[in-house]
């Protein structure tokens, strides 16, 4: 079952650095997520797609064992868009 806390964000960059960060909503089908977006070819070389899966973990007081708060945990993937482009001559 897919997590309900998976988010996507396109980080659009050029040679000078970050141009924009754009949230991207996934489409779920057959227990997989697909992120679709379009950017100009000139930005592909430096741009990335960030996929984040976050969840909270309860923190406990070591003495009493009581729940005292939440700690954010998760996994972040940074995918270089250029790795998925065909090399044009």
Keywords:
89 residues; mainly beta; two-stranded antiparallel sheet; 6 strands
Order of helices and strands: EEEEHEE
Number of strands: 6
Are there runs of 5+ residues with pLDDT below 50, and where?
A: none
How much β-strand is present in the residues?
A: over 45%
Shape: elongated
Largest sheet: 4 strands, antiparallel
Q: Kindly report the spatial arrangement of strands forming the biggest sheet.
A: 2-1-5-6
Question: Could you estimate the helical fraction of the residues in percent?
Answer: under 10%
* Cα distance spanning the termini: 42 Å
Class inferred from helices and paired strands: mainly beta
Number of distinct helices: 1
What's the gyration radius in Å? 18 Å
Mean pLDDT across all residues, rounded? 83
């Amino acid at each position: 079952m897919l997590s309900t806390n998976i988010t996507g964000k396109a980080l659009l960059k050029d040679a000078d650095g970050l141009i924009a960060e754009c949230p991207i909503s996934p489409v779920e089908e057959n227990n997989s997520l697909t992120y679709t977006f379009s950017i100009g070819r000139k930005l592909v070389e430096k741009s990335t797609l960030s996929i984040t899966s976050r969840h909270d973990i309860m923190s406990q007081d070591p003495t009493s064992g009581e729940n005292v708060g939440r700690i954010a945990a998760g996994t972040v993937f940074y995918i270089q868009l250029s790795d998925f482009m065909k090399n044009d001559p």
